[in-house]
Backbone:
């Protein structure tokens, strides 16, 4: 069973597909200002422990930042602590989606090398313009596990030239 981990919440529109973002729509229904990027009470969820010393969060797949973007600028001060938790929990596979793949190299830890075995990075594209811009960057990044998500799909996309090393494409 997969777990969810949202160390922060909130986001800013940065791409054509953001017009249709579920985060903004859900926040609007709850009268929450999506532009406020805030650290959540579940920030340390991956390393929180029970009284017996076991982790509260089970091993397995962990979806990260599904109420934000893991590479959003306002979270720069918190991200390195998240990388430490991800590294500590080698028994979990952490997956995050991002529309900000151009920030990836400035957001990784010093010991990243060719990537952590337990991290899956999913680059989100929504049309050909953004696919060409973002996937041209993504294809050359040192990431062991790469995925592409085309959502929301707002135009035709030809990804043929970008699929080397991609483990999964979700449309």
Residues:
């Amino acid at each position: 069973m997969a777990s969810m981990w949202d160390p922060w919440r909130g986001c800013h529109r940065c791409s054509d597909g953001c017009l249709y973002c579920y985060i903004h729509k859900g926040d609007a229904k709850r009268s929450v200002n999506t532009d406020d990027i805030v650290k959540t009470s579940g920030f340390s969820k991956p390393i929180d422990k029970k009284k017996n010393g076991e982790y509260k969060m089970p091993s397995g797949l962990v979806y990260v930042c599904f109420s934000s973007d893991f590479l959003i600028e306002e979270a720069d001060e918190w991200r390195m602590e998240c990388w430490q938790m991800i590294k500590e929990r080698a028994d979990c596979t952490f997956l995050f989606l991002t529309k900000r793949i151009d920030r990836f190299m400035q957001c990784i830890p010093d010991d990243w090398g060719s990537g952590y075995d337990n991290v899956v990075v999913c680059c989100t594209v929504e049309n050909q313009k953004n696919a060409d811009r973002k996937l041209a960057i993504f294809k050359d990044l040192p990431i062991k596990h790469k995925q592409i998500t085309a959502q929301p799909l707002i135009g035709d996309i030809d990804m043929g030239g970008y699929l080397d090393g991609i483990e999964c494409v979700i449309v």
